[in-house]
Amino acid sequence: MFYFSNVDGKKVLKSDLLTGVEHFFTTRDCCLFSKDKDMSENRFFIEKYLGQRMVTNQPVHGSHIEKIVSDKFFYEETDALLLDEGKAAFMNFGDCVPMIYYYNHVGMIVHGGWRGTALKIAVKALDRLKADYGIMPCDVKVVIGSAICCECYEVGEDVFETLQQTVRDKSAGFYKADDKYFVDLKEINYQQLKNSGVEQIDVCPYCTACGEGKDLFYSYRHSHTGDRHSAVLKV
Ligand SMILES: [Zn+2]
Prior knowledge:
By secondary structure, the chain is an alpha+beta fold. It has one domain: 4-Layer Sandwich (CNF1/YfiH-like putative cysteine hydrolases). Helix content is 24%, strand content 31%. The strands form 4 sheets. The protein has a 6-stranded mixed β-sheet with strand order 5-7-10-9-11-15. The chain starts with a strand and ends with a strand. The site of zinc ion has 6 residues, from loops. Zinc ion binds next to loops.
């Protein structure tokens, strides 16, 4: 279950699946990335709260995963960050699916847009946890944050069919009306994780482009803003 909390009085969203783990999703209350404004004050707030500097990345809708090393704080062309040994990171989102993975002081933040979802980045992240730490999917907890919903996310037939190839259940997360095609990226990533043996997953109900969520988060499709909300994790 997701619930609202605050970081120094700024509203954030958290999941009770990760109780005891320092993690949250920022809202419009605490933007960490903007194309137009300087957000260093908000970043400073959070780093002060966490007691350390955060790593971040340049997402490119690929499936490249970087393991954070102690002397590097920015990772180019990377859509998943792997953290251990008390490190902290944030990643920015504006409709795509934010995923936080955690097990025993090892964690990941994963960026799942349609391209990353088609490349099964969620599953590649699990493979990496197994390869580097011997962590099995059944032990990993995954929290899927707010992202654009099915009704708000129309795609082309080719994208629809490409994404259908990535899951066993070809109906959940897919909707077709007349000649229009819609996909639910949160659901498709959820299905990929389930198909790979993850048992503990919490999915955020908010859409970034409609309902209550559109006033809490940023949507590239809905408002074409250069602002982003962020997923934050400290292991
Ligand atoms: Zn929506």
